[in-house]
# Entry
Amino acid sequence: MSEFFQSNAEVILRRWPAVAERLLAEDSGALQADLVEGLGSTLSINGIQLTSRHDRTREARLQADSLPADSPAMHVYGTGLGDLQLELLQRPGVERLHVHILNGAVFALVLQLLDQQAWLADSRVELHYAADLREICLPFFALPSELVLADDYNAKIRDRLISETHLAFNNREFVADNPEIAERLQDNIQQVRADSDAAQLFATHTGEPVFVIATGPSLEQHFEALRSIRSQHARPLFICVDTAYRPLMAQGIKPDVVVSIDQRISLQHLPADDSAGTALVYMPLVDPVVLSGWEGKRYVAYSASPVFRELREQLPRAELHVGGSVIHPAVDLAVKMGAARVTLFGADFAFPNNKTHAGWSDGDLGPQLGASRHWVLDGHGQRVKTQLNFRSYLCELERYIAARPHVEFYNSSRAGAMITGTIFHPEFS
# Structure
């Protein structure tokens, strides 16, 4: 135990004994740590610099400037080398500074190497493990290095932080004055007038079980079971996302409802052949060729997006929740139809077994497997490859589930991402 660690640990033990106990159990010896020098110096952990190696103080000042100057309470995710904490504590209006540990082993190592008492002993500071709280807190600054280094325990909070940070960028295409969107909405306005309101489906299956079927690789494990259940007289309602429609039909599994929201969905994904008897719930960005060819009944819905503001005023229709993926309105539709139990199939948000989607070739529906640089924990607690937007979609679904305790949510597979708030289905998983 270094002299620095003993002094730092005494402060933490006095103020946050439970945190101190956990830090003492961290295995910082497993980390590859190096001193990196430039105009100044910093610590590199597993090849990731914790801070600037040239001017840590100036970097911390830039980071602090991104937070509101008049906020009495702020949150820092990641402990770094303490520079940002010290910078924020210089503000006279700060009443509380919450510091959230994203990697316990990294912080334990820093405590061995550097004196951190100046901010740890400040009465305005509160120290937590980030994932001890289920949700992120605002306003925050997340140290970029520790978003990369976040450990398994704090991975869910890391994903929420990254999703929040990227929100404005991800929404940049979905603005009301986007000419392509305006043109698509205009192309579909007559179809919207003619088709039914999705609200007509609400409360039509109150208290019943519903299957919501997505296109994750684990869906392939359930084709046989779904085909058998589909043939039964008394069975759950089958709602699928648009990209799952073709793989299901190829397996002889005809869904009751298909949900589609994306302007990139084409007849390749939703072929009109044999679509009679399957309802299509859509948002008006869907390709008009797909809509005009669909043989089953069509229902219109909007999201809360400003994209639909004018159309919503002209032609009021029901609203479905959207969080970046078609899985969100599909689940919301099931809940608004009255489902007491929603079972998710193919909701993997990851690439288990080194595959991207069920029923599609690598790259057909987005980036190829080789482009994946991120991970989530699967239902076995193991890391599985994913892509960044999938983690954001997962975050939004977990938030949705947490807000609806009256509905039971089941996950049919452990192969994909662990979905907080769901129960592994005893028959399917």
